[in-house]
């Protein structure tokens, strides 16, 4: 019973000692802590995870009919007959996970924009900051996909629960990558959220034979959640496993991460680099000095004000005087 408090005190002491360290590893750990704390403060996303996922799955189960429907599985190589409402559950779970994870990563990227720039100015590595965001994405995707997979077991008999969780995890990684890219590329939060919602709806809906009864999947296989959908259906209704389809999600994440890294470098470059251009020259004044026959000296300014000083005080004369 005393092991947990002791481990907590040790971790707290290690975290306090790390505050003064400036190594890349220490910066990465601290950046991961910042990202995790930011996601934990996103109460709207946490409420969506807790209540939206089971409510959405329950609604789909109650609305869709349970009539049999044929689904083209590329993993089994055959048409498999499944209940329409249970297949709809798979689509709804992927839709919920992709929307929530994509929204959380997009919101985190948008809200941490100025903070990231300050961290870069403080000496944090930009590659380390982006890696911290990817670590936070993995943590968020694990929690959301595990909860969604657990929720599905209350509505249908899942043949392979772990594989179902991995399939949802892969879809979360894909849309987390999309959220990162949109967070650095889109100018407004409304536009980013609209793009995530539309991509997720089209991506998931056209893979469901209830919406798209066609057999031709030539274009469908290029959709971001194609691998997750195929793997998830196989996990829910069969005993088949396909690592190739599972890896499609991480491959999409790598592609989006590369794009996000380039955009992140471009966004923070102007605030962290020093210009090689010489400093601007100080303003100069052009004056003409004339001596009158009575011995008086006249000072005329052609550019910029001049400051005339006597033994007792100074007087500022405007340009042209």
TrEMBL record:
Keywords associated with the record: Membrane, Transmembrane, Transmembrane helix
Superkingdom of this protein's organism: Bacteria
Transmembrane segments: 44-67, 87-109, 130-150, 162-186, 193-211, 246-266
Keyword Ribosomal protein: no
This protein's record includes keyword Ion transport: no
Protein name per UniProt: ABC transporter permease
Source species: Amycolatopsis magusensis
